[in-house]
Amino acid sequence: QANRGLGGWLLALAVFCGGASPAGASNLQVRPTLLMVPAAQHAAGLTLSNLSDEPFQAQVRVFAWRQADGEDILETTNDVVVSPPMLRIEPGREQLVRVVRQRTPPLAQEASYRLLVDEIPGARPAQAPEGTGLRFVLRYSIPVFLSPPAQSAVRPVLHTRLVTEDGQPTLVLDNTGSAHAQVAELAYTDARQGTQVIRAGLAGYLLPGQSRRWRLPAALSLSDEGAFQARINGELTPRTLAPVSVLR
Question: What is this structure's pTM?
Answer without folding.
Answer: 0.83
